[in-house]
Design goal:
heterodimer, A: alpha/beta, Rossmann fold, 4-stranded parallel β-sheet, 4 strands, B: about 550 residues, alpha+beta, Beta Polymerase, domain 2, Cytochrome-c3 Hydrogenase, chain B, 5-stranded mixed β-sheet, 18 helices
Amino acid sequence: MEVTTKSMPYDAWKDNEYIENLVKELQESGTNVIVGSFDKLINWGRSNSIWPLTFATSCCGIEFVSLGAARFDMARFGWEVARSSPRQADFMMVAGTIVNRMVPVFRRLYDQLAEPKYVIACGSCAISGGPFNKSYHVAKGIEDIVPVDVFVPGCPPRPEAMIYGIMQLSRKIKVERFFGGVNRQQKQEDFLKSHPVQDVDQG
Amino acid sequence: MAEIQEKIAKLFPQATFEQGDVLRICIPDAQWHDLASALRHDPDLNYDYMITIAGMDWRTSLGCVYFLQSTTRGNDVISVKVETTDRENPMLHSVADLWAVATLYEREVYDFFGIIFINNPDMRRLFLNIDWVGYPLRKDYDQDPALNPITTESERQSDFTQTWVEGPDGKVEKKEVRIFQPEEFVVNIGPQHPSTHGVLRFRTAVDGEIIKKIDVYMGYIHRGVEKLCEDLTYQQTLHYMDRLDYFSAHNYHHGLCRLIERAAGIQITRRAEVIRVMMDELSRIASHCLFMGTFCMDLGATSMLFYTLRVREMILDIMEKTCGARMTFNYDCIGGVMQDLAPDFQKDVKALLAVIPANIKEYNKVFVGNVIAKERMVGVGYLSKEDAIDYAVTGPSGRASGWSCDIRKIRPYSIYPELDFEEVLMAEGDAMARFKVRLREIEESAKILAQLVDNIPEGEYCVKVPKMLKLPVGHWWEMVEGCRGVFGLYLESDGTAKPYRLKIAPPCLPLAGVVDHITEGMKIADLITIGGSLDYIIPDMDR
């Protein structure tokens, strides 16, 4: 199955192998005709209107502003509805360094996002700590704090790279299964169980 | 300088002097407050602007180097060194009663070095958690992550701050002081808020709509750049300058390069100087453009962002062609610049200069004359000139209060003395003035570019510099004009290839420090206007 989005030619993607494996894994147990059609309809809607949370801590945030402005214009793809409240947003573009003091706040923001929710780690700081990796007050990548769907490398990534990253997310949403089967939501629950927020009573 | 030294030596016989690029007075802590008082109030001295306090760990002792500037007497800079040999319980006397900004600077030193300032009214940590173990900039700091683990647990909050007060008998006593009274209604704004321009947090005590007090809470993007620099070679430290105030990347690079070049005795070519200055001014235009866009967006005029980013994108294109990046350029290097100008640099700059006047006219038409904009900006967030100096509010925000603080004019560096441009000053001191100053500074920067674009001399763009650069033992001080104010750098070298201490004095830290003072008695909606008009960059203040 050729999964693509926003009229992007299938061959133009750089990592088709990954998405093919993902589709194979998802379809291992077969697809129900009726439920599968519902999935397709829902995914079509969701993948075409993913709203970002206005969240930026440093340099990458400025490129995110450029992304919203006329030249790169993310409104072309239906992503321009940047929400300031996490409760109204679909995904979080983690643009910038996450430091120790920010970690609890960041995690709370993630927890406040409404389901289904996605995370893009944007820039080398969010991926690994980047140039501040050896610092005493920087989280070495956000992967230990929240589950990440797409990584966009760069310091900061160009707006084009960000567009490509969000398109990748949109493509991932397209093959999601909301009814039955091993889906990412379940994986997410597993992640959250193994990374609990410490001051919340788990019982 | 000699007469000042004479005068101080007469008043304080215990003081010793070190000559350097700035005069340094060494004084025992017991006399420090008296000396500070004389420096501040004596009409012949009148050092009324405190640039920064550099905390220091000299292994055998801990201490501070204070940098002071006189705004009335030719803008000369002096430094004062105060130290204590007690590492267990280091204490110095506070000067927070003399310079308002010192309260914040002393908190920073306390946070990094654990030096307690006696009589400072607010001795809390500034960037790190209340429960942080150790003082990170001390040389014997234990970096073990197990001591300060990354946790998703919310950090402990306290309504109290601590202060050490000296009684009349000289006995120092620790006291707990309430930040907010129990009956006060406190609203939390930030760190995740679209109008705080990043991750800054205000704890705001309000009475209805009126702001009574703001407690600025920083450190949500404190990355420990100063400590990281101590582990890198001089060439490697440069790239962090891009990531402090990412709009002033060129200006900050320029500052650190100048500092290291002066320390190493490297002479750069005129071509490199011209390129650096042109890049600085291009950054300034791009930065002010983005300021206008985001500021107007904070006030609800979203479309302004699209108009201003149009010019900014043109500049980013010019930079991309030469530097190879849209942001974090890493362009200025020790000895000159990284690579030569792109072939169509001159053509592009001329094209930019051709469209700037029309754009400024448009900004004026679209926004400045607008009734709503006037209502929200005129008379909002007044800051007097005296307070601007007292709180060390430099850059366009300081100049909007009528303080002539442009380093390019008052302590000219590089080729600025030869250039014809005006320092934009306004007397109103409100949000509208801060906006207009920036608008006019774009014109002035364009004027500088117009003078240089056809006069880029031929020659080497970078002179040869040893790969492993070692500086002699000593200390140096440098100031340049960033896009948001005075950017100071203090470097101490122990003769190795790595800096012993690199203190970065960012312009945005005092900008955040003055918010409480300006907003008192204003409406809560004005907080957004005031914060936007000050234009602080959070990674710059947190470092």
